Amino acid sequence: MTVVQAGAGRRRARHGHLLPWMLVAPLVLFIALLSLYPTAATTVESFFRVSPLDPPTRFNGLANYRALFANSAVTTSWVNTVVYAAVGVVASTILGIAGAVALKRRFRFRGIILALVILPWALPAVDEAVIWNWMYDPNYGVVNSVLHSLHLIGGYHVYLGLDRWLTVVLIEVVQVWQMTPLSFLIILAALQSISPDLYEAAQVDGASAWRMFRRVTLPLIRPAIAVAAVQSLVLSFNVFDQVYVLNGKAPLGSSLMLQTYLTTFQNLDFGGGYALSLLVTLATVLLSAGVIVLIYRKPVAT
Amino acid sequence: MTVSVTRQHSPAAPGARPRPALRRLRPAGRRSIRLLGRTLSVLVILLWSLFPLYWALNTSLTTLSGAESRPAHLVPAPFSIASYQQLLGVTGSQSGFASQFGRSLLNAVIESGGAMVLTIVIAVLGAYAFARMEFLFKRTIFVSVLATLLLPAYATLLPLYRIMSSLHLVNTYLAVILVYTSGFLPLATWLLFNYFSSVPKSLEEAAFVDGASWLRTLVSIVIPVALPGIAAAAIITFLLGWAQFLFPLVLTSDLSSQPVTVVVAALNGQRIVPFTLLMACGVLTAAVPGIVAIVLNRFIISGVTSGAVK
Question: Which domain holds residue B41?
Answer without folding.
Answer: 3-87
